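Annotated sample (chain length 268).
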Amino acid sequence: MSLYRTLLLPLLVAALAGCTSHRVYNAEERFPENLNLTQQQMQRAIVTALTDRQWKVQSVEPALIKAAITVRGRHHAEVDIPYSATAFQIQLRSSWGLNEKSGKIHRNYNRWVNRLRDNILRELDIDPITESVDNLGIIEQTSGNGDAVLMDFQQGLQRGLDSGLLDGSVRFFLAGQPIDGEVRTLRSVTSNRKTNASNKSDEEACSWVLQSVLASLQNTAKQAGANAVVNIVSYYKRNAYQDPARYECHAGMAIAGVALRGQLATIE
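Output written by the structure step:
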């Protein structure tokens, strides 16, 4: 029996190691230039996310951040994070205690990288969960241009004011709209909402979901001490659509969605 166990144990260990090993995940994210992110914003988002996820920042350079993580003193990984204003990557540099071999590694490493990626996106005010839902393609596009319905922004805004959902304490300006007064921007903000579109026209469904998005932005602005959201663009699947009069609504048979991105600001 002891000989049997002696022969079987290495096979079991090898089998378990194989079950927990996965191809190394090197995260890569890209963003459109008209999202107007800066390299400094990207650097700050990466460093903040690393700190929040308990990685040690080893060095910070204008286009490269190096970091490491050690878990329970037994598992260690080091990564390079090249970045620019429009992209970042998380690349494995070295590791120990993670069974790295032939392009594979313990699944925990991939989990750490995925969580780090999600945190970086959140620091850029991009919700990875909402993005995942959008990328499922559950909204069937029904617009005349084959991609989205374009709706009058001021009309939807006025409906929100008339309904009482918006209280007028926060003003909203699409990118390209003139603004009277001195504007001081605070930070970027994004809101992405869906609504039931069944038995509704595109106009009705889009109006409802726009009001929900604006109410969300209004609440965020108040919490930040802002009285305006400026430079607003439609933002769906990281595609920024800029129009000084209209917003983009994705209206399907059952669901309609609107996503807006802008900057919190104070106007005096």
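Annotation: DSSP finds six helices and 14 strands in the chain.
Annotation: The mean pLDDT is 87.
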